[in-house]
Design a protein that fits this description.
Blueprint (H helix, E strand, L loop, with lengths): L8 E4 L5 H10 L4 E6 L20 H6 L3 E6 L4 H12 L3 E4 L5 H4 L4 H7 L4 E6 L14 H8 L19 H22 L7 E5 H9 L2 H8 L17 E5 L5 E5 L3 H17 L7 H5 L2 H13 L3 H10 L3 E4 L3 H6 L1 H6 L2 E2 L8 E2 L23 H7 L4 H9 L3 E2 L7
Parallel strand pairs: 1-2, 1-4, 2-3, 4-5, 5-6
Antiparallel strand pairs: 3-12, 7-8, 8-9, 10-11
Keywords: Transferase
Pfam families: CoA_transf_3
GO molecular function, one term: transferase activity
Length: 403
C-alpha cells in the first residue's frame, strides 16, 4: 500500500535530531526523503550513543528511517547545481543550521524560491532566524532551560532538572512536521505558495507547556517545581511507591474523577469531605489529598492498588521501564514497536494510527551515500559524470567506492 504522502518530495539538509525527526515523521507516511550529508562528514547521530550488533548507531537507525542518503558537497558550485536540480522537483527542504549558513552558501530562501517558488522551507535553529539571540549557539538542553521546562522539573529544594529524553529537539521535530503540513495545506488551497517555516528549538516546548504564562498574567500565580506533585497542584495526583516497590503515577483530571480517586484511597469519609467538593477547593488542601493517596499506596502492593482503583474507575498507571514497554500488552496490541526484515533493532512505529492510510516502516537508517548513484542517475547524470564528481570530492558513493 502506498502512503498518503508518497508524492511528497523532501530534501533534508538537517542533522542531529530536530530537523531529521521532522522528516522521519513524514517519511513514516510515505514521503520521499533524500538526506544530504557532506562527502567527508556524516550526521553525528550515526555515531552518537550505543551501537547495534552491526556497528551502526541505534539512534541513527530510527532517525534515518525510510530515507535515501546522498553524499554531496552542496556548498560547492557544482554541488549547488545538483542541489538546484533536486530542489526544482521537491516540495520541502529542511535545514537546521545556525542562521546565515544557507545564505553564506548562496542558497538562502530567496534563492531556493527562485529555483522553486512552491518550495516549503523548514528552518530550525536554536533561537530563530531573527532577534537579539539569533546568532548564539544552542542545544536542546539550552532550549529546555529557556522554555521553563527545567525550572518546573525536580523537587522544590533541589536543582532544576532536564527530562530523561531530548524533549526540546523531539518536540521541535514534531512541531516542524506540523508546520510543514500547514504550509503545504496553504499551498494546496491557493492561500500561499512556498513559504518559510521558522521555528526556534525552545518555542515548541514553550507552546506545549503554555499554561505558566496565562497562570502568571491572568491569575498572578507562578508555577514552581513540586517534586512528585504537579507544579500548581490544580488536580490530585503524583508519583507514589507501593509496598512492593512499584512506582505508580496517580492522576485525576476533573472533579468527578477526583472524587472517585478519593473514594478509592479514603472511602466515603474522605470523598464527601466538603474541603474536596470541587477542584478549586481541593487545590487549597492538596497536601491533605497527597498524603491520603500516599498513605494508601505505600501500604498496599501494586496489584492491590490496581484492583481497588479499578473498582472505583480511578487511574493509577505503572511507571514502565524500557523492558516493560517491550512486553506491555497494550503497546504490543497497538503494534507500536515494529521491525523490518533483516534487522535486530526494533523502533517505535508510525504515530498516529490512520484507519485508511496507515504509516509504514520501510527500512531503518541506511549507510552514508547509499543512494547517491541512483539519485544522480535519476537527475540525468551518466556514470562517467558521476565518477568525475566522485574524483573531485563533490560526491560520495556508498562505502566511498568509485564506479
Amino acid at each position: 500500500m502506498s502512503g498518503p504522502l508518497d508524492q511528497l518530495k523532501i530534501i533534508e539538509l538537517g542533522h542531529v535530531i530536530a530537523g531529521p525527526l521532522a522528516a522521519a515523521l513524514l517519511s513514516d507516511f510515505g514521503a520521499d526523503v533524500i538526506k544530504i550529508e557532506a562527502p567527508n562528514r556524516t550526521d553525528m547521530m550515526r555515531d552518537l550513543g550505543p551501537k547495534a550488533e552491526d556497528g551502526v548507531g541505534v539512534w541513527w537507525k530510527t532517525l534515518g528511517r525510510n530515507k535515501k542518503t546522498l553524499g554531496l558537497d552542496w556548498k560547492s558550485d557544482e554541488g549547488r547545481d545538483i542541489l538546484r536540480k533536486l530542489v526544482e522537483d521537491a516540495d520541502v527542504l529542511i535545514e537546521n543550521f545556525r542562521p546565515g549558513v544557507l545564505e553564506r552558501a548562496g542558497v538562502g530562501p530567496d534563492v531556493l524560491h527562485d529555483w522553486n517558488p512552491d518550495l516549503v522551507v523548514l528552518r530550525v535553529s536554536g533561537y530563530g532566524q531573527d532577534g537579539p539571540m539569533r546568532d548564539l549557539p544552542a542545544f536542546g538542553r539550552a532550549a529546555e532551560a529557556m522554555s521553563g521546562l527545567a525550572h518546573l522539573t525536580g523537587f522544590p529544594d533541589g536543582p532544576p532538572m532536564h527530562p530523561g529524553f531530548p524533549a526540546a529537539d523531539s518536540t521541535t521535530g514534531l512541531m516542524g512536521a506540523l508546520g510543514i503540513m500547514i504550509a503545504l495545506f496553504a499551498r494546496e488551497k491557493g492561500i500561499a505558495r512556498g513559504q518559510v517555516v521558522d521555528i526556534a528549538v525552545f518555542e515548541a516546548l514553550l507552546r506545549l507547556m503554555d499554561y505558566p504564562v496565562p497562570a502568571l498574567t491572568g491569575a498572578n500565580l507562578s508555577p514552581r517545581r513540586n517534586g512528585l506533585r504537579q507544579p500548581m497542584d490544580f488536580a490530585p495526583g503524583g508519583m507514589f511507591r507501593t509496598s512492593d516497590g512499584v512506582w505508580l503515577s496517580v492522576s485525576a483530571g476533573s472533579a468527578e474523577t477526583a472524587q472517585r480517586l478519593l473514594r478509592a484511597v479514603g472511602g466515603d469519609a474522605l470523598a464527601d469531605d466538603p474541603r474536596f467538593a470541587t477542584l478549586g477547593e481541593m487545590s487549597r488542601h492538596m497536601t491533605v489529598v497527597f498524603d491520603a493517596i500516599n498513605d494508601f499506596v505505600t501500604q498496599h502492593t501494586a496489584k492491590e492498588v490496581e484492583a481497588v482503583f479499578a473498582r472505583h474507575d480511578a487511574v493509577a498507571s505503572r511507571v514502565l521501564s524500557v523492558e516493560e514497554i517491550m512486553t506491555n500488552e497494550q503497546i504490543r496490541h497497538r503494534g507500536d514497536i515494529v521491525s523490518v526484515d533483516g534487522e535486530q533493532t526494533q523502533v517505535i512505529g508510525p504515530v498516529p494510527h490512520l484507519s485508511a492510510t496507515p504509516g509504514q516502516l520501510r527500512w531503518l537508517g541506511r549507510p552514508p551515500s547509499a543512494d547517491s548513484q541512483s539519485i544522480l542517475r535519476d537527475l540525468g547524470f551518466n556514470d562517467e559524470r558521476i565518477a568525475a564528481l566522485c574524483e573531485a570530492g563533490l560526491v560520495r558513493l556508498e562505502g566511498g567506492r568509485a564506479l
